[in-house]
Amino acid sequence: MRPALAAPLIAAAGPAGGADLVSARTQMALSLGWHIIVACLGVGMPALLLFTEWRGLRRGDDDYLRLARRWAKAVAVLFAVGAVSGTILSFEMGLLWPGLMGAYGQVIGLPFALEGIAFFLEAIFIGIYLYAWDRLSPRAHLLTGVPVMVAGVASAFFVVSANAWMNQPRGFLLEGGRVTHVSPWAAMFNPATPPQTIHMIVAAFMVSGFATASVYAVALLRGRRDRYHRLGFLVPFTVAGALTPVQIVVGDYTARFLARYQPTKLAAMEGLPRTGPHAPLSVGGIFVGDRLRYAFEIPNGLSLLVGYSPDAVVQGLDRTPSADRPPVTPVHLCFDTMVGIGVLLLLLAAWLAFTWWRRREIPRSRLFLWPAAASGVLAVVAVEAGWVVTEVGRQPWVVYGRLRTADAVNPAPNLWAGLLLLVVVYTVLTVSTVYVLRLMVRARPVAAPQERETA
After folding, report:
1. What residues pair up with 297 in beta bridges, in sequence order?
2. Distance (Å, rounded) from C-alpha 20 to C-alpha 424?
3. CA-to-CA distance for 108 and 86, rounded, in angstroms?
4. Dist CA 84 CA 305 (whole Å)
5. Are 107 and 187 a contacting pair, CB within 8 Å?
6. How many beta carbons lie within 10 A of that of residue 113, not counting itself?
7. d(CA 46, CA 52)
8. Each residue of 68-100: pLDDT tens digit?
9. Average pLDDT in the 170-188 region?
10. Beta bridge mates, 287
11. Model confidence over 285-304: pLDDT tens digits?
12. Cα separation of 36 and 156, whole Å?
């Protein structure tokens, strides 16, 4: 069973504990932080790939077909390395966190089982898609890629729903300290599932779009202004840019969800020390003692966001015992990072939309192309920061209100050895993946003659 999306099921930070607890958290954070990048690309890139192939077949367009050929190879590489990192995560769930899996494995087993089915379907059809490119009719070949796209999105949904359960545990009763009356479907479709799954799937498409476009933005900066490179930038950037305002709306929905179901996390995100109306929206700053210092505050901003009124009461950290609070400063700063990057990407998307509306071309200014070239990295940073907010903001709980992270960790000594081994493994994976992808970028793509015919 391989998690197809790096929904960080265990937080990278939490309450102070022994060296092995720190090692386990660090190991899980490294695995999930690495895997989430590959997994996002695995969710979003098949859709970009199928669109370019469909467009090329419909119009008999060689440039679209050349893009599809190249992106197909990248998808294959990313699927392979994602399978490796996902397998590592599967083992880590049991080895590092037996307190979680032993107590609640029967509750959250369903989404992982369904994800396993989705993974095998994805593996089967990605093999067919790559092997049958010149062996099936163009239309039949295009259809073999549809299950790859659907399975990738389904995998994301299943795994993130398991993580959502950890934020809003449902579907069981505790009787005498034992889990009884298990309802796997109620567990999977818990209150946190809609906001988390939508937020993550949209983020995956944004990462895929901006990361792919950033490669071609670099080529445009180097003077490669031919139609192939312009399309390579325009198609994924347009998709990601169109989803950016959607993600901002989803983020607003998620914040109001947190105000109702996880008010302590929202208070940590905003560094809000006290409960009351007229709660400000704070940007920047660090939490020292019992207050947020050096922050820029927007008066009434948080009350307006949560309750659409400056008189809306927002719960602060004072309602939560200090032992049950997450570390505020990293949660707050990561939240600001995520939102700040989202605003920057929205401005870039608006710049492209305005220029295209006026002149039907990509902005030529290097002031646009430089941040566009960095947009892929920025999108990845935003996703990583968002997951720090989600997971560290839940601390000290691994299962919110039910099981503490310190009580779920493997009590065996010397967990640091696994961490060292993991650093070596991911170093090799990173170098190998970057090397292979760079070779693909430098290679000259050529479309098959068959694909130059219209479907």
Report:
1. 282
2. 19
3. 17
4. 41
5. yes
6. 13
7. 10
8. 999 998 898 888 888 888 888 888 888 888 888
9. 88
10. 292
11. 888 878 888 889 899 989 98
12. 10
C-beta separation of 304 from 265 below 8 A: no
Following DSSP, what letter does each residue of 92-108 receive, concatenated?
Answer: HHHHH-HHHHHHHHHHH
Residue type, 25: R
Give the tokens for residue 305: 């966001």
Q: What is the DSSP string of 42-84?
A: HHHHHHHHHHHHHHHHHHT-HHHHHHHHHHHHHHHHHHHHHHH
For residue 401, what is the DSSP state?
Answer: T
Position 277 pLDDT exceeds 70:
yes
What's the sign of the alpha-carbon dihedral 333, 334, 338, 341? positive
**What pLDDT was estimated at residue 453?**
45
Phi, psi for residue 314 in degrees, rounded to 5? -115, 130
Token pair 């995998």 is found at 155
Alpha helix locations (H) across 98-145? 98-131, 138-144
What CA–CA distances, in Å, run from 77 to 158, 292, 434? Answer: 23, 45, 10
Give 404's strand partners: 397
pLDDT at 445 (0 to 100) = 57
| Distance from C-alpha of 196 to C-alpha of 251, rounded to nearest angstrom | 10
Tokens 């467009």, residue?
A: 55
Residue 120 CA to residue 67 CA, distance in Å, equals 26
pTM of the model: 0.89
Spatial neighbors of 351 by CB under 8 A, at least 6 apart, are: 363, 368
* Rounded Cα distance, 425 and 437, in Å: 18
Place 419 in a pLDDT band, splitting at 50, 70 and 90: confident
Q: What is the reported pLDDT for 25?
A: 87
The helix (H) or strand (E) run that includes residue 399 is: strand 397-399
